[in-house]
Amino acid sequence: MTIGDAPPAPAAFRRAVESLRAAEVRPEIELEDLPAPQRLAPFSAAIGASVYREDEELAVGRLILLFDPEGQRGWEGQFRLVAYVRADMEPEITSDPLLGPVVWSWLTEALDSREAGYRAAGGTVTRAVSEGFGDKADEPVSTELELRASWSPAEEDLSGHVAAWCDLMCLAAGIPPLPPDVATMPRRREDPESTRP
Asked: Which residues are paired to 65 by β-bridges?
């Protein structure tokens, strides 16, 4: 190894990355590898997702895997998952004062239903209203929901966490959960650069 070379990724991190890619998701979801942030942890990987109904994109998200062999304060382990979900919503839904707790429960219930053990979870739910003015005055008012969350997975196999994150995105997009006996097939675009430490 020469000066400036990145250290090889530890086996535990490589196994966790493979489990991100092995997750089975609903046909409405398209996954792709994304470049991962480099300064949050010694090793990182990221995937993105879009939820479609026909050709209309209803929700988007990112899931970032962070790995630090030494752990970091607040992680309670070597791994941390950071999730982001954004979806358009009807104005009357985003004005509901219970929306934040309901959306947070979508995440925790999805993790529990996928038996994806976790600890040290935290996050925010944001509602945004966009109005057009001037040359954009004719554009309709749009409302969006954003969830930003992070948690520490209890195991290296992250496929259940990916599935739970995708379940959350479908709920945010207004797509009901699939019955438990329905099989899913992954849709994925690959980016080989995304697992670089």
From this structure: 45, 81
User: What confidence score (pLDDT) does residue 96 get?
Assistant: 72
Q: H-helix or E-strand containing 88?
A: strand 79-89
pLDDT (0 to 100) of residue 2: 44
Beta strands 43-53 and 56-67, pairing class? antiparallel
Q: Which residues pair with 67 in a beta bridge?
A: 43, 79
The residue among 38, 100, 27, 94 whose CA lies nearest residue 64 is 38
Structure-block tokens of residue 24: 């089975």
pTM: 0.81
- The neighbouring-strand residues paired with 59 are 51, 87
The span from the CA of 5 to the CA of 66, in Å, is 20
Please work out, in degrees rounded to the nearest 5, the angle formed at the alpha carbon of residue 118 by the alpha carbons of 113 and 120: 135
44/63 Cα distance (integer angstroms): 11
CA distance 63 to 15: 16
Per residue in 128-141, is it b (16+ CB within 10 Å) or e — as a string?
A: eeeeeeeeeeeeee
For the CA atoms of 20, 23, 25, 31, the dihedral, rounded to the nearest 10 degrees, stands at 30
Q: What local confidence, expressed as pLDDT, does residue 194 receive?
A: 42
* Segments of the chain with pLDDT less than 70: 1-7, 91, 94-95, 178-197
